[in-house]
Amino acid sequence: MLPDDLLSIIKDRRSTRKFTDKEVSDEVLMQIIDAGRFAPSNTNRQGWKFLLIKNDDLKEQMHKAVSDKVDEILDSMKSKVRYRAMRAYTKYFTFFKDAPVLIVALFTRPSVVAELLMKDTKRVEMISGELISVSMALQNMQLMTHSLGLGSCILTGPLLAYESMKTLLDIEDKYEICCLMAAGYPAEESFSPKRKDIDKIIEIIK
Ligand SMILES: Cc1cc2nc3c(=O)[nH]c(=O)nc-3n(C[C@H](O)[C@H](O)[C@H](O)COP(=O)(O)O)c2cc1C
Predict the structure, then answer these.
(1) Are 155 and 179 contacting, i.e. CB atoms less than 8 angstroms apart?
(2) Distance 82 CA to ligand 1 centre (A)
(3) What pLDDT score does 114 carry?
(4) Which end of the chain is more exposed for a tag (fewer CB within 10 A), N or C?
(5) Which pLDDT score, from 0 to 100, does residue 124 have?
(6) Ligand 1 mean position to 9 CA, how many Å?
(7) Stretch 44-57: mean pLDDT, rounded?
(8) 193 in ligand 1 pocket by Cβ < 6 Å?
(9) Does domain 13-187 have CATH number 3.10.129.10?
(10) Partners of residue 177 on adjacent β-strands
(11) pLDDT, tens digit, for every residue of 128-159?
(12) Percent of the chain beyond pLDDT 90?
């Protein structure tokens, strides 16, 4: 593959938030996950797991958990400005309900034994290694999704309802939820949010 081909896959990928009803086949889903599992990971631990949700009832229950939490937050807000901002954001936390597939990305927490063995390492550093690893897998998955003609969007907004989500999905204690990835065939063309110029994000140290 030429560098320009890779760059165009990277640059043309967009977060998709509206999907058609077209089903995403299990075969396509496996291609997406396969791209994820070849990502680099912390000491090659591959401490990730992906829940693939196509079940409408479950999506509906997850949606309700997030909507209830958002309502609770809205009810407790005193500032009108913040209230309006939160209300405007709500659709970005809840649109996942209409995605044909919802991928819940999990990462393993370091075990108690690992924490004892590495007691000089801060817990936050250990967790960040796992979180970076699953994030790299997700990036591979988003690019694969795009190259297969599908669209996707990463969501952390729904994690407002983190505890309800963990219970609903019956997630083992050793896992934390990284985010959701909504996927399906795009129903519309998404606009491209502007990127910061390169000189704004680098500092050359000679
Ligand atoms: C960690 C992370 C969390 C995100 N959470 C949300 C979210 O909760 N809801 C949403 O609509 N988009 C979410 N996004 C998508 C971003 O808004 C999007 O990537 C960004 O605006 C750039 O647009 P692009 O992906 O089309 O290039 C998230 C993206 C990342 C990487």
Answers:
(1) yes
(2) 20
(3) 66
(4) C
(5) 65
(6) 17
(7) 96
(8) yes
(9) no
(10) 106
(11) 889 999 999 999 999 999 999 999 999 999 99
(12) 81
In short, whether 93's Cβ falls inside 6 Å of ligand 1 is yes
For residue 92 and ligand 1, the question of a CB distance below 6 A is answered with yes
User: Does any ligand 1 atom lie closer than 6 A to the CB of residue 18?
Assistant: no
Atom of ligand 1 nearest to the CA of 91: 11
Minimal-distance CA residue to ligand 1 atom 15: 154
Contact indicator for 31, 147 with CB cutoff of 8 Å: no
User: In whole angstroms, how far apart are CA 169 and each of 7, 44, 106, 124, 181?
Assistant: 36, 26, 11, 25, 15
Q: DSSP characters for 101-145?
A: EEEEEEEEPPPHHHHHHTTTS-HHHHHHHHHHHHHHHHHHHHHHH
On the question of pLDDT at 18 being above 90, the answer is: yes
Structure tokens at 38: 């070849």
Full DSSP string of 137-152: HHHHHHHHHHHTT-EE
Domain boundaries, the chain: 13-187
Q: Which tens digits make up the pLDDT trace of 92-131?
A: 999 999 999 999 999 998 766 666 666 666 666 666 889 9
156 lines ligand 1 (CB under 6 A): yes
Burial of 129 (0-12, 13-18, 19+ CB in 10 A): middle
- Ligand 1 nearest atom to the CA of residue 158, by list position: 8
